[in-house]
Specification:
The chain is mainly α. It has 2 domains: 28-221, Orthogonal Bundle (Clc chloride channel); 237-434, Clc chloride channel. 70% of the residues lie in helices and 1% in strands. The chain has helices at 28-66, 71-89, 98-108, 115-130, 138-155, 160-179, 182-191, 203-221, 237-294, 303-310, 317-336, 344-362, 367-383, 387-396, 403-419, 421-434, and strands spanning 96-97, 340-341. The protein has a two-stranded parallel sheet with strand order 1-2. Helix 1 (28-66) packs parallel to helix 4 (115-130). The longest helix is centred in the middle third of the chain and has 58 residues, at 237-294. The N and C termini lie close together (5 Å).
């Protein structure tokens, strides 16, 4: 979700110490070995953080299963610990989506992020994820990868043009490591920086960083896919036509999701002026606690919800619809009221739920197909990317033969954009008149 976060013009140049004198080393092999080393180091640190918050989250769910009201305590820890860590240790005192921060540093700081910011916000994301906040695991992985790349680039005095490539490639390596999806990491580096273009200059660096990062993550975490395995079948014409319809539905929900997320940020800013930071966080704790009390499928990273659908668990239509809406609310509250983490994965989980709901309403076969299509469609619609969602579905569901349907559904992102152009333009004009949107959303702690 990158309304004002992506740039459509050439990258901005910074004055001062960012201008470096050393370009690409004369020996290109040494340069690419450095990029590969950054990918391996980013993957090792990413896997360490993944194991930490995964174990914390497992303990959180174990306690919540004994009594649902315990989640109010974990909601307090998820938001307050994250907020306190950033306020005390980070240089920029803003929580929220890490994708926003990575894009901001890529465009406005030429790929430079301080060690304090990268470290503090990674720890804040671990607290949020480990205590059951609704955020994505790519949050700390992007910060770890980008932080490692930025630090090494500074130490070696690498020129800005190459620093930016190394920075986004390091972030892509972190993404490839946490999901064990090297192609997704490469395409992420190409698609995420710009709204309607590919940053092809970063292709080689992204590949050199992401592939070793994937191998390192497989060595540490194993080769098991994050959603396990499920047999699929060959999708026919009827399934593809239904996938097109599902893609349009997900396009509409992407607008609802982004507006809900933006509204949560505006409400937070208004309440902060009246109640202060403490009061605002406590309200977020109460709302997030209510979500967890009524639906454990709507909190946490969300893999348990997707796994349940993939394994064929029985859900009523009302349960699915409630879980989808509560997951949307939980994500908006988590990342706007003190929590830190990614916004990439929550949209995948919500999209999977929409796909499963769609197939349940129509009572059709190939329900796993529509789960995969929903993942790709909603991710494409919210983040304005086309190739990355398809690659993610293929790599995380390797044994399923649904690539064609997922790709068609992702292509509907461009149709949806044109179809809703007048709506988007009207909203932008309204926001400018209200003075709430400039280069970046001024709340600085959400990625909408």
């Amino acid at each position: 979700m990158r309304f004002a976060l992506q740039m459509s013009a050439s990258p901005m140049k910074k004055q001062g110490k960012c201008h470096r004198v050393m370009g690409m080393p004369e020996n290109r092999a040494r340069y690419y070995l450095l990029v590969g080393f950054i990918g391996v180091l980013a993957a090792a640190l990413t896997c360490g953080s993944y194991l930490l918050y995964s174990n914390m989250l497992a303990e959180t769910f174990a306690v919540v299963k004994t009594a649902a009201w315990y989640y109010f305590l974990f909601a307090f820890l998820a938001l307050s610990a994250s907020y306190a860590t950033v306020r005390v240790f980070a240089e920029t005192k803003s929580t929220g989506s890490s994708t926003h921060l990575v894009l901001e540093k890529y465009h406005l700081s030429n790929g430079e992020i301080s060690v304090r910011d990268a470290s503090a916000k990674t720890v804040a994301s671990i607290f949020t994820l480990g205590f059951g906040g609704s955020a994505g695991p790519e949050g700390p992985s992007l910060l770890v990868g980008g932080g490692v790349a930025s630090y090494i680039s500074r130490r070696l005095n690498i020129r800005i043009r190459h620093t930016r490539r190394i920075f986004i490639s390091g972030a892509a390596a972190g993404l490839a490591a946490v999901f064990r999806t090297p192609l997704t990491g490469i395409l992420f580096a190409l698609e995420i920086p710009y709204r309607n273009d590919l940053d092809m200059e970063a292709f080689i660096e992204a590949s050199v960083a992401s592939i070793p990062a994937y191998l390192m993550s497989v060595f540490i975490l194993g080769s098991e896919r994050i959603f396990g395995q499920a047999e699929g079948g060959q999708a026919g014409l009827n399934e593809i036509l239904l996938s097109v319809i599902l893609g349009l539905i997900c396009g509409g929900y992407a607008v609802f999701f982004t507006e809900t997320f933006s509204m949560a940020g505006r409400v937070r800013n208004t309440l902060k002026n009246k109640m202060g930071n403490t009061g605002t966080i406590m309200l977020g704790v109460f709302l997030l606690g209510l979500v967890g009390f009524f639906s454990t499928y709507s909190i946490g990273v969300g893999t348990h919800f997707v796994d349940a659908m993939v394994s064929g668990a029985s859900f009523t239509v009302a349960t699915l619809l409630t879980t989808i809406l509560l997951k949307t609310l939980a994500t908006a509250v988590t990342l706007n009221f003190g929590g830190s983490g990614g916004l990439f994965f929550p949209t995948i989980v919500i999209g999977a739920g929409i796909g499963y709901l769609f197939s349940s309403l129509l009572d059709v076969n190939f329900r796993i197909l529509f789960v995969a299509v929903g993942m790709a469609a909603l991710l494409s619609g919210t983040h304005k990317v086309l190739l990355t969602p398809t690659a993610f579905v293929v790599e995380t569901r390797r044994r399923m033969r649904y690539t064609r349907a997922s790709c068609k559904c992702s292509e509907l992102r461009r149709f949806r954009k044109q179809f809703l152009l007048s709506y988007s333009t009207a909203q932008q004009v309204k926001s400018r008149r209200a003075g709430s949107r400039k280069v970046f959303h001024k709340s600085k702690n959400y990625d909408a």
